């Protein structure tokens, strides 16, 4: 089976790649402020169409999705598609470094054309962001595979916020249905502090009901802003079948650590005595543990769940060992090279090693987070546009940080610089990226536009000898990876997707305060085979506002 292509949603621009026969789905979304309470405490959030998380998009492979977005906020707004790999198309990645935001207050209109190309059922969440606000308008896009691409998974289910499971379409695990109908209204469980779980049960309602003897697929996504979550279901084991869009070896787990930005699919057999059971989510690696529980029921039974909740594991060694047990399923959907040609990633020679270390410090007396001594600052013009229009000079310089952290970082003495950070990569280079975390908190990194192979993790500092511990066979191809406290994680990938791509901390405050950078991958051929042209309705801002459009890419 393939990795990257499992979760590919390609935006299609202009006339080139849209196939006339592929259906179009049109959506009109209004973005507003509203009150949300993801962890029980009401706060101001961003709603899409009055909902948080936002509405689901039901679609199948190769659908073209057109979204008209009205920004009713009093600040500019961008929508990004976390976990959707936009092949050849960073034009619609929706990050501040790739797109101009939809101006504030204006009910102005933008159109995203996203072409789903997933070979397996997958889900993603778009990320709403404004420059000022820590806000995530988690919405979901559920792409079921079409009958054209065989899938071994039951239809996708909607994901939910804060790592809560959501009800799947009723299906037996053998029913490898590839039909289009992903499922299930999004329902959010009652989220309560731990200890109140039994009380929740008393008056609580099952968020959905299973039928004895059937098997259900749950998709669990951590769309939170900060905390790693542990997910478990009373009395039920979970068979892992998918993560971040890749099929996995089907190990069975009692609980799963889901780091910020990650998604898992598990199969759960309704094979216990018919009564209620709690799904429990609790935070990990945090001083104060927050828990939430929701009830799932069995059809025909109103019996309350057992009072005793399953406990979360303790410490991060457990979590690291669980990560080590994850394996790519090389036989699901037939093994074949992924679009990066890196199916045999273990036998490709590494052309470059980039070591990135995060740090915390201050700039002008304010807290900032940095990578290799620099904290990211947005220029007035999105990087991708400045690059395309040949206006980089005034906006940013390439490669201001080097491929290794400065020595002084080790003592914590290095001053942090604030600047736009853009690394360049040669098109199709196969690189190793070491994410080193010298801090005491856990990190979670996400790379837009790519799937990568997390080949190794370990405590302490990375050294070249650590390569001997790499999994060069069947690491699960993913888009988000954790780095444990005072540890390192190593990922490998081929930079074969031209564009300007954001590498960021998924922990929102860190991302927002500068722990992010962009990687510019330019195809020297300037060919439509490697990168699409910008869409006709591309918003322009900053230095590009009055510049003439460069000549389009051609075949
Ligand atoms: C998605 O499909 C499911 C099942 O077909 C349906 O119940 C649900 O209402 C649909 N959701 C949307 C947003 O269209
Ligand atoms: C790989 O996936 C296939 C299809 O989903 C499944 O039948 C098989 O058991 C999986 N292999 C392992 C080792 O889990
Ligand atoms: C990789 O490097 C080794 C040693 O430098 C060399 O012998 C081999 O041909 C290279 N393989 C490829 C595919 O370039």
The small molecules bound here are:
2-acetamido-2-deoxy-beta-D-glucopyranose
What is the CA–CA distance across the termini? 30 Å
Strand content: 25-35%
Q: What's the number of structural domains? A: 3
Q: Nutshell version of this structure?
A:
This protein is mainly beta and 555 residues long. Helix content is 6%, strand content 34%. Residues 1-20 form the signal peptide.
Q: Keywords, please?
A:
555 residues; mainly beta; Immunoglobulin-like; 5-stranded mixed beta sheet; 5 helices; globular; disordered N terminus; binds 2-acetamido-2-deoxy-beta-D-glucopyranose
Descriptive account of the structure:
- By secondary structure, the chain is mainly beta.
- It has 3 domains: 21-144, Cupredoxins -  blue copper proteins (Immunoglobulin-like, Sandwich); 155-324, Cupredoxins -  blue copper proteins (Immunoglobulin-like); 345-544, Cupredoxins -  blue copper proteins (Immunoglobulin-like), CATH 2.60.40.
- The chain contains 5 helices and 31 strands.
- A 5-stranded mixed sheet has the order 1-7-5-2-3, with no helix packed on it. A 5-stranded mixed sheet has the order 10-19-18-12-16, covered by helices on one side.
- Strand 13 and strand 14 (246-247) form a beta hairpin.
- The longest helix has 10 residues, at 316-325.
- It starts with 8 loop residues before the first strand and ends in a 33-residue tail after the last strand.
- The model is unreliable at 1-20, 108-113, 115-126 and 128-202 (pLDDT under 50).
- Bound molecules: 2-acetamido-2-deoxy-beta-D-glucopyranose (NAG) (3 copies).
């Amino acid at each position: 089976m393939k990795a990257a292509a499992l979760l590919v949603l390609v935006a299609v621009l202009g006339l080139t790649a849209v196939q006339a026969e592929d259906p179009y789905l049109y959506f009109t979304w209004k973005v507003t402020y509203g009150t949300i309470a993801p962890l029980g405490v009401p706060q101001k959030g961003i709603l899409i169409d009055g909902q948080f998380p936002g509405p689901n998009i039901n679609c199948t492979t190769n659908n073209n999705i057109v979204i008209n977005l009205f920004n009713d906020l009093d600040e500019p707004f961008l929508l990004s598609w976390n976990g959707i790999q936009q092949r050849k198309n960073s034009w619609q990645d929706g990050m501040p470094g790739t797109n101009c935001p939809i101006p504030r207050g204006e009910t102005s209109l933008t159109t995203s054309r996203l072409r789903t190309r997933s070979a397996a059922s997958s889900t993603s969440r778009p990320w709403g962001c404004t420059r000022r606000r820590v806000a995530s308008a988690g919405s979901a896009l559920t792409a079921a595979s079409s009958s054209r691409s065989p899938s071994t998974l039951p239809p996708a289910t909607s994901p939910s916020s804060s790592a809560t499971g959501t009800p799947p379409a009723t299906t037996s695990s053998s029913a490898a249905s590839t039909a289009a109908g992903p499922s299930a209204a999004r329902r959010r469980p009652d989220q309560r502090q731990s200890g109140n779980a039994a009380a929740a049960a008393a008056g609580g309602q099952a968020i959905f009901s299973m039928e004895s003897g059937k098997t259900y697929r749950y998709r669990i996504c951590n769309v939170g802003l900060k905390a790693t979550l542990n997910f478990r279901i009373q009395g039920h084991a979970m068979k892992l079948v998918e993560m971040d869009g890749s099929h996995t070896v089907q190990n069975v787990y009692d609980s799963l650590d889901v780091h910020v930005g990650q998604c898992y699919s598990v199969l759960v057999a309704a094979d216990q005595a018919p009564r209620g059971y709690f799904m429990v989510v609790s935070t990990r690696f945090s001083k104060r543990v927050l828990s939430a529980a929701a009830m799932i029921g069995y059809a025909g039974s109103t019996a309350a769940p057992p009072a005793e909740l399953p406990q979360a594991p303790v410490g991060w060694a457990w979590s690291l060992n669980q990560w080590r047990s994850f394996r790519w399923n090389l036989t699901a959907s037939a093994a074949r090279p992924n679009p990066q040609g890196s199916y045999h990633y273990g036998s490709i020679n590494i052309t470059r090693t980039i070591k990135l270390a995060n740090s915390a410090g201050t700039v002008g007396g304010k807290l900032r987070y940095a990578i290799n001594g620099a904290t990211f600052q947005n220029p007035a013009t999105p990087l991708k546009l400045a690059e395309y229009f040949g206006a980089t000079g005034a906006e940013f310089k390439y490669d201001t940080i080097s491929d290794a952290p400065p020595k002084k970082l080790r003592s914590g003495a290095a001053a942090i610089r604030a600047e736009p950070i853009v690394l360049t990569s040669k098109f199709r280079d196969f690189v190793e990226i070491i994410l080193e975390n010298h801090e005491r908190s856990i990190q979670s990194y996400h790379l837009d536009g790519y799937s990568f192979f997390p080949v190794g993790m370990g405590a302490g500092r990375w050294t070249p000898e650590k390569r001997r511990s790499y999994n060069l066979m069947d690491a699960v191809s993913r888009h988000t990876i954790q780095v444990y406290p005072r540890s390192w994680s190593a990922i490998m990938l081929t930079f074969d997707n031209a564009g300007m791509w954001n590498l960021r901390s998924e922990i929102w405050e860190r991302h927002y305060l500068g722990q992010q950078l962009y990687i510019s991958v330019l195809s020297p051929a300037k060919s439509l085979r490697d990168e699409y042209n910008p869409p006709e309705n591309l918003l322009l801002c900053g230095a590009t506002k009055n510049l003439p459009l460069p000549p389009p890419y051609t075949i």
